[in-house]
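Convert to structure. Protein one:
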Amino acid sequence: MFFTRWSMSPILRSLNEMQHEVNRVFDRWGRHPFGIGEFPALNLWEEEDTLHVEAELPGLELRDLEIFVTGQNQLTLKGERKAPVVEKGVQHRQERGFGKFTRTLTLPFAVDANAVEARFENGVLKVRLPKHEAAKPRKIEIKA
């Protein structure tokens, strides 16, 4: 039908755009209390037999942070950033997020949980995760 082909196309395009916008809103506010992107922001890289993770955690106290390695290849960061209390004065804007958070990463290989090292300096958490022996490449001898 001529009517269906030409008149439905703009309607479907509009519905597609609306669905995209609704998904964007849920992505922005539905996943965590901090609003934009995942919290904390992370960098993850591999160097020889070690995986490195850095997480930005400004305003967080060390006592409000926990780190877990589970299943040999999952790293979980859990904590709470407390909101500052304004006793005298009027708050005009609050853009920084506060509250509890949990972030779990599936790592690209098994790590040795007993050898994991973590440091917290200037609001940046640095975690060093050595590769588990079972995850390291092993040269196989070829028999003739």
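Protein two, convert as well:
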Amino acid sequence: MRITKLSAGNIIEASCTRCRATLNHTIVAMVGEKVVRVECNTCHGVHNYRGPVEKKEKTSSQAAPKKPSVPRQPKKDPGISEMEEWEALKPTFDLTQATPYDMDRKYRANELINHSTFGLGIVKTNIPPKKMEVLFELGKKLLRCQ
């Protein structure tokens, strides 16, 4: 309970905008009985008066309900899925139908090609302009084409 009247020069608790804490401040300006400006006794910053901030505790009704914890499923490695896809397609390959890779030629999806470095591959998609995605035993590669 306050017995003395507040006036400029008195010390009051206020929320400091610089320190971001409730600290002692010196009253700098008042309008009537209302404190308007204060100076922080710690950082000496002058700012508008903000009353001390009180932390509110959350009650059980305000707290967000917790979701039941479910163990996360590990993501499938893209390299493994490409290898599985390669193994599934390998028996369908007709090696006599494989065309030698030439970057100045057009290729269709599902066409079998023979690359000098990567070996046998199957064209998955054409990506304009002048690119295609090819599945090799080592994984997918982006190659130039016409």
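The longest strand covers residues 22-31. The beta strands are 11-15, 22-31, 34-40, 46-48, 99-100, 112-115, 119-127, 131-136, 139-144.
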